[in-house]
Amino acid sequence: MARRAALDGWSRLVAWLKVLLPLLALGLLSTLFLVSNRVDPEDAIPYAQVDVEERLREPRMTAPTYAGTTRDGAALELRADETRPATADGQGQTAKKVNARLSTPDGAVTDLAADAAVMAPDGNEVTLTGNVTFNSSTGYDLVTEALTARLDETAIRSTTPVRATGPVGQITADRMELTQRGDGGAGYLLVFNGSVKLVFQPAK
């Protein structure tokens, strides 16, 4: 009798465990899901520190690049940290921290850099302003405050006085321009105009 009572007790325990254990497992799973879904906004990783309202008011593009070829076969590439679209008052697209490279068919390379730039409404010319530098593989390094560069042909002109160093020495001038030769010959000309001063430095 004692053995039968023990077996009955064991059977009842097993029956209860069959009910209790699945319920306990469900309870644990529910607890895990509830805990995992609790997200602290303070712990969330911000993906961008951007003022959305400001972006809507003043749309802009980050790190854009422009590349093209002029009619005379020169390759032109422009890069900027940031650009903004043209405005309703007729001002063209603007840019900040601009770098440009002009590679002409004769093998010369000219690098330009400036604090800012404005593109003409027709998209054929860009004006660089603020700490403009002009560095040519022909040996001329130039500094000015503003210059314009055509995008459809090789034509770069300063609109403010320039200071330059080159193979012949130090040069100051009212204006400078880099254009394709107008006599039909191959090559390009770098010309200084206005009140030009040259401090000649003979080669050592």
From TrEMBL:
| A Pfam short name | LptC
What is the top-level taxon of the source organism?
A: Bacteria
Give the InterPro entries listed for this entry.
LipoPS_assembly_LptC-rel, LptC
What name does the UniProt record give this protein? LPS export ABC transporter periplasmic protein LptC
Q: Which organism is it from?
A: Paragemmobacter amnigenus
Q: Please state the gene responsible for encoding this protein.
A: lptC
